[in-house]
Amino acid sequence: MSKLNAARMQDYVLLLRLNKPIGILLLMWPTLWGLWMAAEGLPPLHVLLIFVAGVVLMRSAGCAINDYADRDIDLHVERTRNRPLTSGRISSKEALLLAAGLAIVALLITLPLGWSVILMSIPAAFLAGSYPFTKRFFPMPQAYLGIAFGFAIPMAYVAVQGSVPLEGWLIFVANVFWTVAYDTEYALVDKPDDLKLDIKTAAITLGRYDIAGIMTCYAVCLLLWAWVACELGFGGFFWAAWLVAIAIAVYHFTLIRNRDRAKCFKAFLHNNWFGGALFSGLVLQFHGPVVSGFGCALNGF
């Protein structure tokens, strides 16, 4: 591969944020929550693989659309002014074609899941594609992002069970609050630039109550999970993981309380552990006896 082609490929990687997997992980955790809850354990392998591939494809498409929507704004933001599309290394047409191609592939891979899931993937794609434009007029675009990121939860229930029960919608709402929490932490990093550019974010809308708002969102998310866990009679494995998630949220408060931009970004990245903690609770809840039995078998040797 020539140096020119290698540089071109690197620009595509940067455009799709494949070098920054945190976005994939933050979208993956609620998807896995929905799949494990719907299947009460490991979902059918083909369903799991389709949803995992869909997460990667739609997140990448969303990044391309985001950079297209923000191509003029990013020029004035310190953190984003050197992105491939903003700097002109990738054209707007290329970004749109790439996003459309990825979205079409994501739609096609849902075909084995049936028409109900296929039809749900259409509004999911619309939400992902329209989110970047909400920053122009919607005072809480983070909530819109939460709906887009959480749409895989009801889709997972429909794929596995054929319908979405109450607990599925409660987890969906919990994800919206979690997304508002971590994306507001992210918005605190760019707040000075966003104020100059008149960009709408929860960090600006909440004003001096931004930290309180973030922690309230964490609390609501965790309380909704507690509600679901109580209703379904979850055991100690899940509650231990739930307590770990609380500890992680408290740690995030220690990072963001002084609004230091570097520490706010660190808190945003650390949300991978928050989502992972809750998912580990589900794995232990549904597979705990298997894990315990395996441990006892090892002790027998």
Q: How many strands appear in the DSSP assignment?
A: 0
What is the average of the pLDDT values?
A: 89
N-to-C CA distance: 52 Å
**Largest sheet features:** none
Radius of gyration: 20 Å
Shape: globular
Instruction: List SSEs in N-to-C order.
Output: HHHHHHHHHHHH
Helix/strand-derived class?
mainly alpha
Strand content: under 5%
**Unreliable stretches covering 5 or more consecutive residues:** 291-301
- What's the tally of helices? 12
Helix content: over 70%
Question: What this model shows, in words?
Answer:
This protein is mostly helical and 301 residues long. Helix content is 75%, strand content 0%. It is built from twelve helices and no strands.
Indicate the topology.
Blueprint: H1 3-15, H2 22-39, H3 45-69, H4 92-108, H5 115-130, H6 141-150, H7 152-160, H8 166-197, H9 202-205, H10 210-232, H11 236-256, H12 261-299
Helix pairs in contact: 2-3, 2-7, 2-8, 2-12, 3-4, 3-5, 5-6, 5-7, 6-8, 8-10, 8-12, 10-11, 11-12
Record keyword descriptors for this entry.
0% strand, 12 helices, globular, single chain, mainly alpha, 301 residues, disordered C terminus
Describe what is shown at a glance.
This protein is 75% helix and 0% strand.
